[in-house]
Design goal:
By secondary structure, this protein is of the alpha/beta class. The chain has three domains: 4-192, HUPs (Rossmann fold); 204-231 and 332-412, Aminopeptidase; 233-330, no CATH class. The protein is 31% helix and 25% strand. The protein has helices at residues 12-25, 43-60, 71-77, 89-108, 126-140, 154-165, 176-182, 204-219, 366-375, 377-381, 398-402; strands spanning 4-9, 30-35, 64-66, 113-116, 143-144, 224-243, 246-247, 251-252, 263-265, 267-273, 276-281, 287-290, 309-312, 322-341, 348-353, 385-390, 411-412. The strands form three sheets. Strands 6, 7, 9, 14, 15, 16 and 17 form a seven-stranded mixed sheet that branches. The longest helix is centred in the first third of the chain and has 20 residues, at 89-108. The structure holds iron/sulfur cluster. Residues 39, 86, 90-91, 94, 173-175, 177-178 line the site of iron/sulfur cluster. One of its GO terms (biological process) is tRNA queuosine(34) biosynthetic process.
């Protein structure tokens, strides 16, 4: 009988070597992947791990099924185990669930063997996974393949391949409880926070956008390259602007620092600058910019820890009583990515950027970029044209700054 192996997959990093090893050990077997990770929080993280898994599977010619994001069920099953340490009882329940669902699907698909790439992770207990897998295997009449993927240079192979594939490398196991424990001294857990509906620079949403375009470009046979860069991120938590006690719609210029408390001020000086009127207030070194199009007022150059700037299209009388509140966070270890599709030295290029404002405005629709890739595929393949997608555009065009090397020799379309 032909061996049919269903492989539970939790992420691209653990899968990249383990799937290769299985293909080598079982060259005649039919291998299928099953991405099942209801433990992952938040959902954007789950999608990111899925898209990277898909990339690996497609490259290896392995079909992969995406399981349900059944987080409510996972939370129910781990009730009372929230404070367990990693490798404790909560992890056993978490492994049981994922392996049992894999076995059920293997049975349904008429497969005779199953395994998991969790066996690849140096942070997992091999013996515990083996015991769980074998006991579930007995229950469903399946053979559990307890392959120690880490042995014989497996970990080194995984690290090398992860780099080659430029895989997203998560920095926590997956669930919110492990993350709470890992970051308990920090007070603030940026991985668990999502602000607004947009793709702010350095966020998972921004990276997901890049990975989505990347996988599409690769499916067209186009060459891609990701360039990562670090920067100090900024997120607006809350802002209030009232004029004579009336709330005024506004934006806050990125990298504005927080105000300690409610600031009550008046206009000290006003002057025109380019296409806006600038109001300097008499307290707190705060400026208000009045412009017809506040949305277009992006940060043109990188800046850090500067005085607050509020931007509005409302007029403000000279003698108005103004109240302001502003709370923002700086995130020191932010990372963003530039994506280059095609030959970086192509004679011409088209450019986009990946981030948006927090409300989702001032960004590109991924479908439009994909259409452009389809209609220009031949030109990109021939090396005449490349497509560049910059990260962190709204933080002072950081991605562009980072990629300046060699740009002078290129002709922009
Ligand atoms: S730490 Fe990892 S294995 Fe343990 S419960 Fe959380 S997600 Fe599951």
């Amino acid at each position: 009988m032909e061996d049919k192996i269903l492989v539970h997959i939790c992420c691209g990093v653990d899968a990249v070597w383990a799937l290769r090893k299985l293909k080598m050990d079982f060259p005649d077997a039919q291998i299928k992947g099953f991405f099942y990770d209801p433990n992952i929080h938040p959902e954007e993280e789950y999608e990111l791990r899925w898209i990277e898994t898909l990339r690996i599977c497609e490259d290896l010619g392995i079909e992969c099924i995406k399981g349900d994001y059944d987080i409510e069920r996972w939370i129910d099953l781990t009730k009372g185990l929230e404070n367990e340490p990693e490798r404790g009882k909560r992890c056993t329940v978490c492994h049981d669930l994922r392996l049992e669902e894999t076995a059920k699907l293997a049975k349904k698909l008429n497969f005779n063997k199953f395994t998991t790439v969790l066996l690849m992770s140096p942070k997992k207990d091999f013996q515990v996974l083996k015991d769980v897998g074998e006991s579930i295997g007995r229950k469903y009449g399946l053979e559990f393949l307890a392959v120690d993927f880490r042995k014989k240079g497996g970990v080194e192979n995984m690290n090398r391949l992860s780099k080659e594939y430029q895989l997203y490398h998560q920095n926590y196991c997956g669930c919110m409880y492990a993350l709470f424990q890992q970051r308990k001294d920090k007070g603030y857990i940026s991985e668990l926070v999502s602000f607004g509906r947009g793709r702010i620079a350095g966020s998972r949403e921004e990276l997901l956008f890049i990975k989505d375009i990347r996988i599409f470009a690769e499916s067209l046979g186009l060459k891609v390259k990701e360039d990562k860069f670090k920067f100090i991120g900024w997120r607006l938590i809350r802002s209030v602007l009232t004029v004579n006690k009336e709330p005024v719609p506004h934006r806050v210029l990125p990298y504005s620092s927080s105000l300690k408390s409610v600031l009550r001020a008046k206009v000290a000086r006003s002057y025109e600058e380019e296409d806006k009127v600038v109001l300097n207030l008499n307290k707190g070194n705060v400026q208000i910019w009045i412009t017809d199009n506040p949305e277009a007022e992006s940060l043109k150059k990188p800046r850090l820890f500067t005085d607050p700037v509020f931007i509005t299209d409302n007029s403000i009388p000279q003698d108005a009583k103004i109240e302001l509140q502003l709370e923002a966070d700086f995130i020191p270890d932010s990372e963003s990515t530039n994506l280059i599709i095609g030959n970086p030295d192509a004679e011409s290029y088209v450019e986009f950027y990946s981030d948006t404002l927090p409300d989702g405005s001032l960004g590109f629709d991924p479908e439009k970029i994909k259409e452009l890739l389809i209609s220009n595929r031949e030109k990109i393949l021939s090396g005449m044209l490349s497509v560049r997608i910059y990260g962190a555009e709204h933080c002072g065009k950081l991605g562009r700054e980072y990629s300046k090397i060699g740009e002078k020799s290129l002709k922009k379309l």
